[in-house]
Design brief:
- The chain is of the alpha+beta class and 362 residues long.
- The chain folds into two domains: 229 residues, Rossmann fold (3-Layer(aba) Sandwich); 119 residues, OB fold (Dihydrolipoamide Acetyltransferase, E2P), CATH 2.40.50.140.
- Helices cover 22% and strands 34% of the residues.
- The strands form four sheets. A six-stranded mixed sheet has the order 7-8-9-3-10-11, with helices on both faces.
- β8, α5 and β9 form a beta-alpha-beta unit.
- The structure holds adenosine-5'-diphosphate (ADP) and magnesium ion.
- Adenosine-5'-diphosphate binds next to β2 and α1.
């Protein structure tokens, strides 16, 4: 039995439907993530799980107990769900110790003190208990907020864009730290974010959200290499779509050569055999195109971004179509220069011909 299960959950604000028949489940100890652009309904879903919003249809089960449906609603304080927010929401007039102890203020003194001490150590703030929030860095404050949410031993922890207020370096480090803390404590959690790096660093499973629906619920690897539709392919990672012609069920031809792999049989309109001539959209990631001086295929450098170990080159093919290529940074080529490239594609990602029309012009 999953620890959390949402079945066809919808939510409307007035007449505005923001969550649309959303379903997913999470096992005990797993970290799930809802990843999607701003406004797609992520916070609303978290608030519905926490019990701050009523569902318009569908239901939510926690440990097999129905906690939300249009007919019944277990109040938030009885769900044993912890929350961590973007803005930390610490009490400024309370010390770190008192902030963490806040959620267990009914517990006996000794027990409370022991729990706070344990949590301070867990989040790496052993010696900071006497400080006030304003005396701590943003990253430290967010660790206090995490400790405070964990204090009452919640069944489920919800994290709403918890790293958004931190600078990029710290965000990456803290997201890995938080994953370790949650895993060591065996906490089941849901992270909500619009940042795929955060999602990939923290979560075991990710649901890509768009307009109140989950487009694909999967492991990070599959979201990147086997996106279920164009929205997921666009949202996760970088890449461009090229027009392809299906040669047979295993091969598709694009401007840069022929790719082999499993071509989905629904690639064509009215041609179930996946025969010659079906037009498809082929996704090429920056790591699918490698720089090779020996290659006869040449492309012109039109833009470049230095990324330390690599350059991300934007290259113009002879047809004028642009592609992206990740190249080790000791290959420093000037804009306007022509460089040799070849395909190195492990996973062929192809979408239906009906979607080819929306390929942006180069
Ligand atoms: P996200 O967290 O993905 O950015 P939200 O769940 O906050 O998205 O919001 C989804 C949509 O619902 C947005 O269009 C937002 O403007 C709207 N919305 C959010 N909260 C309310 C509210 N309390 N009343 C009315 N509309 C709301
Ligand atoms: Mg939000």
């Amino acid at each position: 039995m999953p620890l959390l299960e949402l079945k066809d959950v919808s939510h409307t604000y007035g007449s505005h439907q923001v969550v649309d028949a959303l379903s997913f489940s999470l096992d005990q100890g797993a970290i799930g993530c809802l990843l999607g652009p701003s406004g797609c309904g992520k916070t609303t879903i978290l608030r519905a799980i926490a019990g701050f919003e009523h569902v318009t249809s569908g239901n939510i089960c926690l440990n097999g107990v129905n906690v939300s449906s249009p007919a019944s609603h277990v109040p938030a304080e009885r769900r044993r769900i912890g929350m961590v927010f973007q803005d930390y929401a610490l009490f400024p007039h309370l010390t770190v110790t008192d902030n963490i102890a806040f959620g267990i203020r009914g517990a006996p003194d000794m027990e409370r003190r022991a729990r706070v001490k344990e949590l301070l150590a867990t989040v790496g703030l052993g010696s900071q208990g006497g400080k006030y929030p304003h005396e701590l860095s943003g990253g430290q404050q967010q660790r206090v907020a995490l400790a405070r949410a964990l204090a009452p031993k919640p069944h489920l922890l919800l994290l709403d864009e918890p790293f958004s207020n931190l600078d990029v370096d710290l965000r990456e480090r803290l997201s890995l730290e938080v994953r370790d803390i949650l895993k060591q404590a065996g906490i089941t959690a849901i992270l909500v974010t619009h940042d795929q790096h955060e999602a990939f660093a923290v979560a075991d499973e990710i649901g890509i959200m768009h307009e109140g629906r989950i487009q694909q619920w999967d492991e990070p690897y599959n979201l990147y290499h086997r996106p279920a539709n164009r929205f997921v392919a666009d949202f996760v990672g970088q890449g461009v779509f090229l027009v392809g012609d299906v040669l047979n069920a295993r091969e598709v031809k694009i401007e840069l050569g022929t790719l082999s792999g499993n071509i989905p049989t629904d690639c064509s309109i009215g041609c179930n055999a996946c025969g010659m001539g079906c037009r498809v959209a082929v996704l090429l990631r920056p790591d699918d195109i490698v720089h090779d001086d020996a290659s006869v295929t040449q492309a012109e450098v039109v833009a470049k971004a230095f990324r330390g170990a690599e350059f991300l080159y934007t290259l113009k093919l002879p047809s004028g179509v642009r592609v992206l290529s990740l190249v080790p940074s000791h290959h420093n080529h000037a804009i306007g220069e022509k460089i040799g490239i070849r395909l190195d594609v492990d996973h062929v990602v192809v979408f239906r011909s009906t979607e080819v029309e929306s390929i942006p012009a180069a």
